[in-house]
Amino acid sequence: MNTFYVWASSHKVELAGTLFGFIYIWFSIRQNLLTWPAGIISSILFCWVFFVIRLYAQAALQLYYVLISIYGWWSWHHLVHNDDSDKHLGVTSTSGQLWIKLILINFILTFSIFFFTSRYTDDMLPVGDSFIASMSIIATWMLARKKIEQWLIWVFIDVISSALYLFRGLYATFFLFMVYAIMAGIGFYEWKKEPHKLAC
């Protein structure tokens, strides 16, 4: 018990980020606007955690999460409350044309992030760090636009991320991302219940 207390005392920021991470994923499944403020708090906390352990792409990713969360917050609130039913932000499927664009963007982002982190930082795992960061950028944008396939992408990202965090000794974060993977599967199932259409 004393060992756990010592560990928890030295990982306060990580544990706080984990708590808000659980709140974030719970609200996102329920399509609740509180998804975004919870995500912002969690991202700020994890930005510090990842910077300290030299996962710089992950740290920078958290700053992106803050910005995209502000956009997502506006997007969900503004469009959901718009009187024009054609502008209602409902769950949609990703078109083939958009998939091609997202895959291309992912390739460019992964290479760009890897080039920077491997050349200009002492990032511990530049390849995995860059790939996870790139995929997460795309998946978070898809969440902001309520693309149902983002849940399946998150399952993949969370499993890979959990292995990375376990390797770096972030045990609370490892547990969080394993739960994220399970909850992402549940999120896909729950969103699938809502009628959705194919959209760009």
Structure description:
With 200 residues, the chain is an all-alpha fold. The protein has one domain (10-199). The chain contains eight helices and two strands, in the order H-H-H-H-E-H-H-H-H-E. It has helices at 2-9, 12-29, 35-52, 56-80, 96-120, 126-144, 150-167, 171-193, and strands at residues 92-94, 197-199. It has a two-stranded parallel ribbon. Helix 2 (12-29) runs antiparallel to helix 3, helix 3 packs antiparallel against helix 4 and helix 7 packs antiparallel against helix 8 (171-193). The longest helix is centred in the middle third of the chain and has 25 residues, at 56-80. The chain is globular, with a radius of gyration of 17 Å. The N and C termini lie far apart (53 Å). The model has no long low-confidence stretch (mean pLDDT 85).
Describe this protein with a few key phrases:
single chain, mainly alpha
**Helical content, roughly?**
over 70%
User: Which structural class matches the secondary elements?
Assistant: mainly alpha
The description of the largest β-sheet is:
2 strands, parallel
Q: Mean pLDDT across all residues, rounded?
A: 85
How many domains, as an integer?
1
Low-confidence stretches: none
Instruction: Quickly count the helices.
Output: 8
> Strand tally, please?
2
Sheet with most strands: strand arrangement: 1-2
- Give the overall shape, derived from the CA principal axes: globular
Beta-strand share of residues: under 5%
User: What distance separates the N and C termini?
Assistant: 53 Å
